[in-house]
């Protein structure tokens, strides 16, 4: 029993992990499929479409015209058939051949063709106009989202998965555009067709119209039940698709670990189990999807049989003409299919409105505080000296739980500042505040005596160069990645920076040298080599102030020593901030800041801190003694 319970717990934990990965991959797949405020969302979407609303007005006019002509067409066909039938009977009674002339049916046939021609033209106009309205609205919202994402603070991205943000900016807007072009237009046409067709049925025969409505009500009930169940089964299938996708991605990324621990069999078994779950869910969803439509149409065919029997009796009794009889069946076809589709269309529209709400949620997010205008912004005298000061800085990711309460220190130009402390002590947060990735809650940070908050972010950041522990490469050539921080750099400058970072040798061993294409997730270069390239990128940028966040954490000891010498040459005469866990790399720092829980608990030189026999001395001795 204990073993079974343990397996169940393990299975639950595995499923929770897969669900988290699925959310990260699929973004908004698990978001609610019903809007929170249907009419409010519709009103705002209409407001967002200003400048394009005239297109939608044209669509409405075209839908009305199309409904009028498509509903009028069967009535004209009844006139055509009755006229031709009368002429055929007269010709047969007079013993002459029947010939269609302009007065004997030709005019009616021409009018009938003209009605359908106009309906086709109006239908084409409304389709193209609706597509233009939807795509232009999609483009407008995409542009707004793009501008919004550039103005959102880092805290927005810290609290959301990348897949979620990407999905809202792409998939949700694509769904909205598709539904507007197809679902909404189909719904408008269905409403017009049903109203017009049922009205004409009552004009021709109220009794047969009532029979049609009874069977239509039954079809609508079946459609709604099938639609509700189909959505549930489709959601279940999508859930297992996400589980399987996440498992495949995990197995592919961790294939080396799987082989190293001989877990191929277990991994295959997990894949088979997930695949079987997906197959079972797909079988249920596909069965209902393929069985519901024939069942609903069967009810419609039964209604047509009943109406045909009753109509034949009325035709024999002379209460209906032949043309009216066939026109009535045209109206049945015009009304029955839209009725069965309307429930599905409404569900689709609700899902699209939920997607639109998620887009609006991003547009309503609080933006970063705007930069001062160039006229009002403070400016640092050029060239920048590199004097940095934190003056009673307060900050917290959550305003209710401050991380830094009173941080103060000053850095003179050209000094090397080391920041040490345990994971989560606030080292990277300090750098984020310096770069204005986050805004301080109190106090101020100055560069050469100028408050950084009064400067534009662009002017501030152009004085910094960063090498992060997480080495990131863009899709492109090695030369493009090194020159990323200095657009327009010559090949010779790139090579010189690569040599200083001790990266030139391995680049020349690549198949195409500096023209070799790399990407952050590619495996043609190692993590250490990626970090060397980012160091070369910082060297080429030649910044006034350097920030090194564990810049040598992924290289071997020999390469680390070489890089340290190169970085020492680069840091000469420049202010530099070094976040380090290997204390051997910062013993020559002009100032060492020891952080704990967001607060600087010690500061001084290496010798001063060792003599104080405090937290730094304990940390240093734990590494070297």
TrEMBL record:
Residue ranges of every copy of the ABC transporter domain listed in the record: 388-622
Membrane topology: Multi-pass membrane protein
Molecular-function annotations in GO: ATP binding
Domain (ABC transmembrane type-1): residue spans on this chain: 57-351
Membrane found in the keyword field: yes
Keywords assigned by UniProt, alphabetized: ATP-binding, Membrane, Nucleotide-binding, Transmembrane, Transmembrane helix
Basic and acidic residues bias: start-end ranges: 1-26
Location(s) in or outside the cell: Cell membrane
Superkingdom classification of source: Bacteria
Name of this protein: ABC transporter ATP-binding protein
UniProt region (Disordered), positions on chain: 1-36
TM region(s), chain numbering: 54-76, 109-134, 184-203, 209-227, 305-329
Source species of the chain: Collinsella ihumii
Any Pfam family the entry gives: ABC_tran
């Amino acid at each position: 029993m204990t073993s079974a319970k343990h397996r169940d717990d393990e299975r639950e934990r595995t499923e929770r992990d897969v669900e988290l990965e699925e959310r990260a991959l699929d973004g908004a797949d698990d978001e609610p499929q019903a809007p929170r405020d249907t009419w409010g969302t519709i009103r705002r979407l209409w407001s967002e479409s200003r400048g394009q609303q005239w297109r939608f007005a044209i669509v409405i006019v075209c839908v009305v015209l199309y409904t009028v002509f498509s509903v009028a067409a069967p009535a004209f066909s009844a006139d055509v058939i009755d006229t031709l039938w009368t002429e055929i009977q007269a010709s047969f009674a007079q013993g002459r051949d029947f010939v269609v002339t302009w007065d004997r049916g030709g005019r009616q046939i021409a009018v009938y063709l003209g009605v359908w021609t106009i309906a086709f033209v109006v239908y084409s106009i409304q389709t193209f106009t609706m597509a233009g309205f939807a795509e232009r609205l999609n483009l407008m919202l995409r542009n707004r989202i793009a501008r919004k994402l550039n103005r959102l603070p880092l805290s927005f991205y810290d609290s959301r998965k990348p897949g979620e943000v990407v999905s809202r900016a792409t998939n949700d807007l694509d769904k909205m555009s598709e539904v507007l072009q197809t679902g909404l237009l189909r719904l408008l046409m269905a409403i017009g067709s049903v109203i017009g067709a049922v009205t004409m049925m009552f004009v021709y025969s109220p009794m047969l119209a009532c029979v049609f409505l009874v069977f239509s009500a039954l079809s609508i009930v079946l459609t709604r039940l099938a639609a509700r169940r189909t959505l549930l089964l489709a959601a279940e299938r999508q859930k297992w698709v996400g589980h399987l996708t996440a498992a495949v991605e995990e197995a592919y990324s961790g294939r080396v670990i799987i082989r190293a621990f001989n877990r191929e069999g277990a991994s295959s078994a997990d894949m088979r189990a997930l695949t079987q779950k997906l197959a079972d869910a797909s079988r249920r969803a596909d069965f209902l999807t393929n069985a519901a439509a024939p069942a609903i149409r069967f009810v419609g065919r039964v209604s047509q049989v009943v109406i045909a029997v009753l109509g034949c009796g009325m035709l024999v009794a002379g209460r209906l003409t032949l043309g009216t009889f066939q026109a009535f069946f045209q109206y049945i076809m015009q009304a029955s299919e839209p009725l069965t589709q309307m429930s599905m269309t409404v569900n689709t529209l609700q899902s699209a409105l939920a997607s639109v709400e998620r887009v609006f949620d991003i547009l309503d997010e609080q933006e970063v505080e705007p930069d001062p205008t160039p006229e009002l912004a403070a400016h640092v005298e050029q060239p920048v000296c590199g004097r940095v000061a934190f003056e009673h800085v307060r900050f917290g990711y959550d305003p209710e739980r401050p991380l830094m309460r009173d941080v103060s220190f000053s850095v003179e130009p050209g000094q090397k500042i080391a920041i040490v402390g345990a994971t989560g002590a606030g080292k990277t947060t300090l750098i984020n505040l310096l770069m204005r990735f986050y805004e301080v809650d109190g106090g101020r940070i100055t560069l050469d005596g100028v408050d950084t908050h009064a400067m534009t972010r662009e002017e501030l950041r152009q004085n910094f160069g960063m090498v992060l522990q997480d080495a990131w490469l863009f899709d492109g050539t090695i030369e493009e990645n090194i020159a990323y921080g200095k657009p327009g750099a010559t090949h010779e400058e790139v090579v010189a920076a690569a040599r200083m970072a001790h990266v030139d040798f391995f680049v020349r061993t690549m198949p195409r040298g500096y023209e070799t294409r790399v990407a952050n997730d590619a495996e043609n270069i190692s993590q250490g080599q990626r970090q060397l390239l980012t160091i070369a990128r910082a060297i080429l940028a030649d910044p006034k102030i350097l920030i090194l966040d564990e810049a040598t954490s992924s290289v071997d000891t020999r390469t680390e020593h070489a890089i340290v010498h190169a970085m020492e040459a680069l840091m000469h005469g420049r202010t530099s901030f070094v976040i380090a866990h290997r204390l051997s790399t910062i013993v020559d720092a002009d100032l060492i800041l020891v952080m704990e829980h967001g607060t600087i608990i010690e500061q001084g030189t290496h010798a001063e801190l060792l003599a104080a026999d405090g937290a730094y001395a304990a940390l240093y001795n734990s590494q070297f003694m």
